[in-house]
Fold this sequence. Notes:
This protein is α+β, with helices and mostly antiparallel strands.
Amino acid sequence: MRRWSLSLLALVLVLALAPGADAQPKDTLTIALPSHAPTLDPHMHFERVGVLVNINMFDSLLHRNAKLEYEPSLATSWKALNETTWEFKLRKGVKFHNGDPLTAEDVKFSFERVTEPGKEKKKSPQYGNIRAVKEVRIVDPETIHIVTDKPFPLLLERLVYFNIVPKKHTEKVGDDAFGSSAPVGTGPWKFVEWKRDQYIRLEAFDGYWRGKPPFKYLVVRAIPEVATQIAEIKTGGVDLIRSVSADIMPELKVHPQTYVSSAPILRVHQIELDMRYPPFDKKLVRQAANYAIDKQSIIQKLMGGLGTQVATNVQPAAFGFDPDVKPYPYDPKKAKELLAQAGYPNGVDVTLHSGDIAVRPQHEAMAQMLTEVGIRTNARLWDPGPAWNKFFQADGKGTNGVYFTWGNYSVFDADAVLHPLFHSEVGGWIGKWYTRVEGLDKLIDEGRSTLNKEQRRRTYSQIQKMIRDEAPAVFLFTQYDTLAISKRVEYAARGDEWLWLFDARPKR
């Protein structure tokens, strides 16, 4: 009898501790991301998983609502004084999480720690986003002027995600501590704890200027395994997961604990090719790779139809998109002919990496398609941490190409994909390693240096024709942001791919 009682007690304990439909406390919202960014400092990384955390801890001068319209945030109003100077009025009474008031000095400091005047080597990977900012002038305690080195048409777009940090606190604790154990912002939730590769725990900031957040606690769990994410959303261990695959979507739509919300977004898929070394130093091979992949089949079979094929990596929703530039058709015969013309009649061996486990099925399918035309592809998957970051931030070596997706920092402008992926300057991202297209840097600079919209459109049209022909990447498709959400939470996917969880509500 005693043995039976102990067994029953053990079973009861297991059931009590196991995640279930009521596993989350009512005052806690828990989301799952595949990983955490290497830092919580919003200026020192470029990763989407970090952006989604940062926007709920920090505010920017501008905000974009669910309809994708600009709204006041830390700035209550703004206007252009001339082609290179904008005036911003700062919101009164805003407090940082440590109780310090927001000041114009904090805004000036935030820009300068990214642009780092006088330093040749910029340590912020976001430097390229705002490198046009020449100076931030403090006019009075509530007014600043942002001065650019030349006309900069993307300024307002860039300011939607440019988080403001506190000058005194950041200088006191130092950059390392600010990014790991002492981040302080003005956003709806404040930092409590970070267990690396496990969870980030945030608590509602009662002094938030917009009002009290709907949940007292926000927890961001790092769950790299897709199967584990799905199990957790079904059993109530988490309230929201992203990038729901086409094969699991029908099940989550009818599951008693979950629903699915989708929205078309800017995120574009591409295989960036290393143009410095064989075989992708030859244009014909790069073009062959574009003809070799059946993009429509991948969209329909692996993405549930939730995607749009693109001619380049400029998305249809972005300013400057040219619909007259047509995508590469699927033509494996043409791919084989081009490969032979390039000097590879017997094919060639390449290695293509990816650091995103969510797109592994697409990565493997495309590797097979490339192999079938003679570009024999070894599809490798990096870990999403050290190797991935080493490639992007250190030496740019180790692969013939990399398959990844790019979300434009949620900026609806062609520059937000062209500059980071194809510009060869330090402020670029992959372009500084891979892309070698004569004249492309100059055109990208021209596109971001005039306020004349028609002139910008002409420049971006020229760029799209150029890169479609030169093929510095295999151009693929855009996607939807597809969320699985617990039925205890009201929330909807956004067209800018943000998880702005201040809009989430407990279901009554």
